[in-house]
Design goal:
Layout: H1 6-13, H2 19-29, H3 34-38, E1 41-45, E2 48-55, E3 67-75, E4 86-95, H4 108-128, H5 132-139, H6 149-173, E5 178-183, E6 186-191, H7 195-217, H8 222-241, H9 245-263, E7 265-268
Parallel strand pairs: 2-4
Antiparallel strand pairs: 1-2, 3-4, 5-6, 6-7
C-alpha cells in the first residue's frame, strides 16, 4: 500500500533540485547511456514540471517520430522515502529535425503540446488508478508474454483510445491539419480539414503500428494477433465509433493513403532522418 498518491509524489520527485539524484538512479538502472542521461534537463510549463531529453537521432525514439514520452520504472526511495515500490517516471524526448526538407512540416511547439497533454493525462490516470504501473510493466507490448497477450492487447489498445485520442483532438483544435505517411524513403504529406477523418486516420496509424510491434515480438502468431487486436479495437471503439470500428479505421487509413498518392506532396528522405 503506497503512502502517497502518485500525483503528489510526481510533483515532489520532478523538481530541479532532484535532477541529479534522478540521473544517478537512471545510470544505476542502465537507462540510456551515461552521456545521454547527462543531457536530461528539468523544465516546467505552467504548473506542470517534467524532465526532458533533447536528441538529434532516432536512437531513443520511435522511427518516424519527433517527440514521445518514455515511461521508466525505477525505485525512488532515495528521493521520496514515503513511496513504496516501483515508480513510473515519464521522461519527454524531443528529437531535433535535422533534415531541411522535413523542417517545414515538423512543428516542435505542437509536438511538445501533444506530449504535455499525454503527461497531464497519465499523471491524473495513475493517481486514480495506481495499478496502472504494474499493468504497464507486465502488459506493455515490449515486455508481455504470449500467455498474457490478450491482457496486453487490451491494455495497449486502451492506451490508444484513452490517451492518444484526446491528444489528437487537441492537436486538431490547435490547428494541426496535416497527415503524414512514411514508405520506402518517401514522406507524403496531405492536408485535410475533416476533424473526424483526422482523428480516425491517426488512431488507425497507432493501431497499425501496434500490430506491427506485436508481430515483431511474436512473428509466428501473426494471425492470432491480428484477430485479437481486431476484436479488442471493435470492443473498445464501439462507444466512440460504433459497430465494426476496425473496418471503419481501415477505410480511413486506405482513403488517406489514396488521397496522398493522388493529391499529396511527396519528398524523398533518407532513412536515417525518419
Amino acid at each position: 500500500m503506497k503512502k502517497l498518491g502518485y500525483k503528489n509524489t510526481y510533483h515532489r520527485v520532478v523538481t530541479k533540485a532532484n535532477l541529479e539524484k534522478i540521473k544517478h538512479i537512471l545510470n544505476e538502472y542502465g537507462y540510456y547511456d551515461e552521456m545521454t542521461v547527462d543531457q536530461i534537463e528539468y523544465e516546467k510549463k505552467d504548473d506542470l514540471p517534467y524532465f526532458i531529453l533533447n536528441v538529434d537521432s532516432p536512437e531513443y525514439i520511435r522511427r518516424g517520430s519527433f517527440a514521445m514520452s518514455d515511461g521508466i520504472f525505477i525505485e525512488i526511495g532515495s528521493v521520496i522515502r514515503e513511496w513504496e515500490g516501483i515508480f513510473y517516471l515519464p521522461i519527454l524526448i524531443i528529437r531535433e529535425t535535422t533534415n531541411e526538407t522535413l523542417k517545414p512540416f515538423i512543428n516542435p511547439d505542437m509536438l511538445m503540446e501533444h506530449e504535455l497533454h499525454h503527461l497531464r493525462h497519465i499523471i491524473e490516470h495513475i493517481d486514480q488508478h495506481p495499478d496502472y504501473i504494474e499493468k504497464s510493466r507486465k502488459h506493455n507490448v515490449g515486455s508481455c508474454t504470449f500467455a498474457d497477450i490478450q491482457k496486453s492487447i487490451e491494455f495497449e489498445v486502451g492506451k490508444i483510445f484513452s490517451n492518444e485520442m484526446p491528444a489528437l483532438i487537441s492537436d486538431y483544435e490547435n490547428g494541426e491539419r496535416d497527415y503524414y505517411l512514411y514508405s520506402d524513403g518517401v514522406v507524403s504529406v496531405i492536408t485535410s480539414h475533416d476533424k473526424n477523418e483526422f482523428v480516425r486516420y491517426n488512431i488507425a496509424q497507432y493501431i497499425a503500428k501496434l500490430r506491427i510491434a506485436y508481430i515483431d515480438r511474436f512473428p509466428e502468431k501473426k494471425s492470432e494477433l491480428s484477430e485479437y487486436i481486431e476484436k479488442e479495437v471493435n470492443k473498445q471503439g464501439k462507444s466512440i465509433f460504433g459497430e465494426n470500428t476496425m473496418s471503419l479505421l481501415s477505410v480511413s487509413l486506405f482513403k488517406v493513403m489514396l488521397l496522398a498518392e493522388i493529391k499529396g506532396k511527396h519528398y524523398e528522405i533518407e532513412e536515417r532522418y525518419l
